[in-house]
């Protein structure tokens, strides 16, 4: 590993965030490293601060007019597809490690105390991502990227170098 690189998304690229996250988590985005977690900044809305959310870790997509209380850095560590038989929730969720300890999400419905379950749709909205930066480990040179991923990677590298 040569360090970390931030994938900086423009407003028109936010819809790609779930695809990028799945690529990182599965190892497709950075084949030399294999599956990796991803650091991300998220916007924290009022609905993320309820007692129910604190107990379960289940986040929702914010409602129109809901106040954003600030941002929070978290680490995306997994993904549960809505079609997977071990996912009884009926929606696709990213499993996100929180720094608030095991007392957060102690009743997590998928059995991951200390982790939030954030709906896939949350990550498609620019107003839900705090600063639009996704940090991933970087190996040099990046190999195996094609199509949209390769174009986004090159666009990002030009912005940061």
Automatic annotation (TrEMBL):
It comes from the Bacteria. Residues 40-104 form the Peptidase C1A papain C-terminal domain. One of its GO terms (molecular function) is cysteine-type peptidase activity. The keyword Hydrolase applies. This is Papain family cysteine protease. The keyword Hydrolase applies. It comes from Desulfocicer vacuolatum DSM 3385. It holds the Pfam family Peptidase_C1. One of its GO terms (biological process) is proteolysis. InterPro entries: Papain-like_cys_pep_sf, Peptidase_C1A_C. Keywords: Hydrolase, Protease. Transmembrane segments: none annotated.
